[in-house]
Design goal:
By secondary structure, this protein is an alpha+beta fold. The protein has a single domain, classed as Alpha-Beta Plaits (2-Layer Sandwich). It has 4 helices and 3 strands, in the order E-H-H-E-E-H-H. It has a 3-stranded antiparallel β-sheet with strand order 1-3-2, with no helix packed on it. The relative contact order is 0.18. The model has no long low-confidence stretch (mean pLDDT 87).
Amino acid sequence: MSGIVLTFPILSDKVEAWRRFCQELSGSRRKTYEASRQRLGITRERLVLVETAFGSTAVTTLEAPNMDRALGQIITSVLPFDVWYRERLQELHGVNLAGYEKFSQPTPTPHDQELLFEWALNSSVGG
């Protein structure tokens, strides 16, 4: 299972519209939302509103067995729900996913990765 965290600032006058967008996903558009996510292979999605000193930010967490495929389909799908979803992202965040179409192509995992830092809480600490 792979995952990704996407962080997009919410345009200053769009916070309430973003809340309504989330309400639509869990309400009137729930069935088409679920159908979209199942078709894309997305197994979990969380949308969180974070208020910062710099403004409001939406933090979206996605999990899917094939994240490249899922994101590629979100970017390029012509199905009505997916088009609506992209239009809302552009309206609420000023992000036009059409500019990210190159990311919809499968990419091989790089073999020359260099791990520069990693940290994990030692599970035996305190116990």
